[in-house]
Amino acid sequence: MTVELGPVSAFPASGRLLVQADKPVAIFKVGEKFFAIEELCPHRGGPLSEGKVENGCVTCPWHQASFDIATGKVLSGPVNRNLKTYSVTESDGVLTLHV
Question: How much is the pTM?
Answer without folding.
Answer: 0.94
